[in-house]
Amino acid sequence: MQYDVIVVGAGPSGAVLSYLLAEKGFKILTLEKLSPGKDKPCGGGLTYKTTKLLKDIGLELPEELKEVEATGFEIVHEKDSIMGEENFPLITLIRRKKFDMFLMEQATDYGASVHYNEEVVRVKTGSNKVNVITKSGESYVGTIVVGAGGASDIVGRELGFRRSWKADELGVAIVTESFVGQQFIKEKFSNPWRVILFLSGIKGGYSWLFPKREHLNLGVGSFVFARPNLLRSIEYTQRFFGFRLENARFRGHILPLGGKKRKLVSNNALLVGDAAGLIDPFSGEGIYYAIKSSEIAMQVIEKAFEENRFDSGFLKTYEKRIWNELGFDLMLAARAARWVYTAPLKAIELVKQNKELVKVIVDILTGEKPYRMHKKVILKLPIYAAKWITRFRKRKSAQKSVNFREHI
After folding, report:
1. Residues 398, 292 within the same domain
2. Strand order in 215-223's β-sheet?
3. Please, which of 88, 119, 297, 407 could form a disulfide with 33 given CB 3.0 to 4.6 Å?
4. Same domain as 240, residue 132
5. pTM score, two decimals?
6. CB-based contacts of 25: which residues, under 8 Å, 6+ apart?
7. How many domains, the chain?
8. Residue 268: which CATH number?
9. pLDDT digit string (tens) for 249-269?
């Protein structure tokens, strides 16, 4: 049997693409190396723009999957903090394994086939078809193969998209989702229901505290080039907020960050989601971009079958659309990240001095105005950060001078 499209990976990008294509009547095979319902390291926070996008493509989130609907966010530094709140859920917290299963079930309802516990080890293209070989020795033939396998995606490696990621393209994070009980969650995160981002005790990133019904998702992420000590940052976060998770199991993962033009297509093949390096370098958000890239991929693939064109020249439309619709915003996000995380306390001070900057954060979470609509503010961040660092160094120098004179 020959499939129209073979999707490698059943995370949000792969599951959504499988659903969208199956709904259109295409023969879809999805291959996933993990078992069904296997949890993946993730914060499990869906921004408002993500839940809206899901609804727009016919995948409205069922109420039972919504653990907590956070109408607010709190950004905390050990010396200061700010808070934002709206009258609608800015971030909907979900359990990732349930979310992934929900998405894949929608795809199979439309006729997509999914094989779990089937790891792909070889991918070959030629004669206008693809051959996908799994660890068990099975071989599948399709017209197009889509890499949706995250940072370690096999399709990109096998077809020469890249051998590996460079250090300056990657973030790194560790996360746990531990049972803490409803009372703990209510005491720490209600009035209003909110998520907490902590900007102290970590180089080049932040820690997060995401409440679920009875679980706390606690994690920390940063840039690889910052060489952060993630476990020490987790310890610092728990001490600061006055709790300790006993027997917590932290899992690490790398984050291919967006903001750079990359090769995303070849003959009969393309990459979506994390495999395409579409994670927001500022917030670490990946699910929105996974779903959006899959929507764009579906439109390009549908057109490819209409035209009977599967060469890289034709599929390059996908690459161009990804940059135009997502990539430029992620480039601005990368600039914002480098400068805000250089001087986080100054960033909080700036927001407190200019309440319009809170609206910028809300705009980005809701998708009301993407990063490009706030380009002028973002490009000024290096100036703000440089001024703050200069003043900070002068203050430290002056303090050392005073201390020296005290000992003369």
Report:
1. no
2. 80-85, 72-77, 194-198, 205-211, 215-223, 170-179, 251-256
3. 119
4. no
5. 0.91
6. none
7. 3
8. 3.50.50.60
9. 999 999 999 999 999 999 999
